[in-house]
TrEMBL record:
One GO-annotated biological process of the protein: lipid catabolic process
InterPro entries: GDSL, SGNH_hydro_sf
GO molecular function, one term: hydrolase activity, acting on ester bonds
Keyword Lipid metabolism: yes
Tagged with keyword Thylakoid: no
Gene3D superfamilies: SGNH hydrolase
Protein name (database record): SGNH hydrolase-type esterase domain-containing protein
Similarity-based family: Belongs to the 'GDSL' lipolytic enzyme family.
Superkingdom: Eukaryota
Entry keywords, A to Z: Hydrolase, Lipid degradation, Lipid metabolism
Species of origin: Salix brachista
Amino acid sequence: MNRQRKNTPHVNPVRRCDLDLLHFPSYILYIHSHTPYFHNFLFFNGETSSLHPLLVCPVLFLLHKVFSPLALVAAEGLVNGRRDNGSVKLFVFGDSYADTGNWEKFAASWKEPYGFTFPGKPAGRFSDGRVLTDYIASFLGIQSPVPYTWRKTVEKSGLQSGMNFAFGGTGIFDTFINAPNTSTQIDFFQQLLEEKAYSKQDLNSSIALVSLAGNDYTTYIQRNGKLQGLPAFTTSLISQLSASLKRIHGFGVRKIAVTTLQPLGCLPISTAFSSYENCSESWNAASRFHNQKLQQEIQRMNKESRENIYETLDLYTAFMSKLSPAGNMKPSSFLMPCCVGVASNYSCGNIDKNGEKKYVVCEKPELSIFWDMVHPAQNGWDQVYSSLKSSLHRLY
């Protein structure tokens, strides 16, 4: 909040606070409009108040410092006109861009320095902090849905936000990672429905997030060694994804959001060959081709169903808009990962047999777009979310 104002003319403190309120987080606005005590004392847009004018801004500033935004994500949802907390459920399918803890504790996502920014320790996310799932849940005004593998360790009330079936390293097809692919994740969902974990009413007010495809392309290249034949592979990939989306909808899920493919050529694993100076155009072209085919299929499916059940979240455009250097900034400022191995045979989170760290972490993770060689940092996801946010209303 400590914004510096230079050469600003004198403004009545009440009016100044009116202006500043435009910049307060939405959870403060929620407290004002939904908490009886503050409703009687705070005001907006020049409305009268029984609280002394000089105290209005300090009180709001104190609230801003005391209350954590993520502790009040439900409030944010209400302020922005979304459903009340608990009335919407989010079911997540996908890979490490959406996984919030399904892997067992031996996975990299459960080792330091993952979770460095949030929650301050490893928590199962493939990032230093929050991932896409967390931001979508926040937008919906709910807590991030519980990972599927945690379902038996939480109270039933802990399932009210939905469930996350995503596993890092997985794909639409099988990958080299021994973990549930999309079809198996949907099998888990079907089993829960058969067990009456969620009702038809729950599904009628639910949204599915599907974040997949990057690992499928990595697996394809590892198996084939070149990009030749990729268009045919993309066609089969989109066909299988389409069948999976229809299957999810067939259970009664009202709305399904599927991510476009991120710019694979701009991931650090691709830009490392140019010292993080340039994206790989051939890989970005592959991403664009995938996204074009995906958009065409989504349009066809919506036309077939005669309603807009399926929506795309344009990760490609969102990432690219944040990876363009401004002014004199070097591309490496955006393309370089924060956490890297000390040598080519090490990666973020690796330690040797003596417990010595074999990785380094940048000084300011909060400024990094990428956390490791393939995953965005929390700051990266935050910036991507800021680009996606204006389109998320289509989920309702």
